[in-house]
Amino acid sequence: MAANSPLTVEITRGPAVESSHAVHALVMNGRGEITAAYGNPRRLTFPRSSLKPLQSLALVESGAADEAGMSTAELALACASHSGEEFHTTTVAGWLRRLSFSDADLECGAHAPYAAPCAPATILCNNCSGKHTGMLTLAKFLKVSPKDYVNPLHPVQQKILAAISEMCGQALTPAGCGIDGCSAPNPAMPLEDLGRGLARLMNPAAFDAKRKAACARIFAAMTQHPELVGGTGRIDTVLMQAAKGRIMAKGGGEAVHVAVIPEKDAVIALKAEDGAGRASQAALVHLLERHGLALPEVLGAVRNIAFPVLKNWRGLDVGQIRMGKT
User: Fold this and answer.
1) Model confidence over 231-252: pLDDT tens digits?
2) CATH, residue 12
3) Half-sphere exposure in the Cβ direction for 258 (13 Å, CA)
4) Residue 11 domain flag
5) What are φ and ψ of residue 266, in 5° steps?
6) For 117-131, what is each residue's pLDDT tens digit?
7) Can you give 44-81 as a three-state secondary structure string?
8) Does residue 106 form part of some domain?
């Protein structure tokens, strides 16, 4: 594929552009074919939390989710980067108790809730506490020690990495993993391979019945419980609520974002070169609009999140976030 310019997201102040961000992005169909590319689709990328839908595959297709009696809401939390609101933390806590675990067994670390940054840091408020409870659920099913379950060589992580490798089309190894913010392994891969993994989640025709069913359950859980995947006012939550089951979206650290749109046979994967989340959010909404992948009312619901008017401490309008010319 010929080289293309990255998308550009601009931040203005008064009459001039003050800052800009380059965004690598691709749109892919369910056959894994790139239908549009911006920048470098082979850009080596740590998917960060945008990988969570694929990380949850082993939990579902192994039978661990069913044996643990996991609800659809709990599966959504396994795929979440939640805001630490009460409905997030109480659901995770109940899930842990049912498995005879506690938050002390989670190896994700503690931070203040995204919804209340000045509140005390807790482990349950860690945005990845649902993902980690899913990993404990898998450890219990596999009858292996839950201790050090974030180690890339632990059976839980080996099972997860094997499923991601099959979905993304390359053999991923512990040596190719970085350590995520929550301490779990996160494999580096070309942006194109991340897109392919999500395209296969959308269209798992090449896989067996267990994998197909797991893909469908993950998509359904996230789109049925968008408030659990993110939180109040978060772009993934607002987008999925507005789309009413038509779009699955998941952001990740350092400005990675993916979206899956089955009715349009399309997947978006993108990464802002400088890791700025404001750029990845703007680029995601831009691509949904540019390629006709979302209804006007869906775009309207997230436009002010992606392209806000910027204000100073006195509430004066000082600039805006907008797309540059591409």
Assistant:
1) 999 999 999 999 999 999 999 9
2) 3.40.710
3) 31
4) yes
5) -145, 145
6) 999 999 999 999 999
7) EECCHHHHHHHHCHHHHHCCHHHHCCCCHHHHHHHCCC
8) no
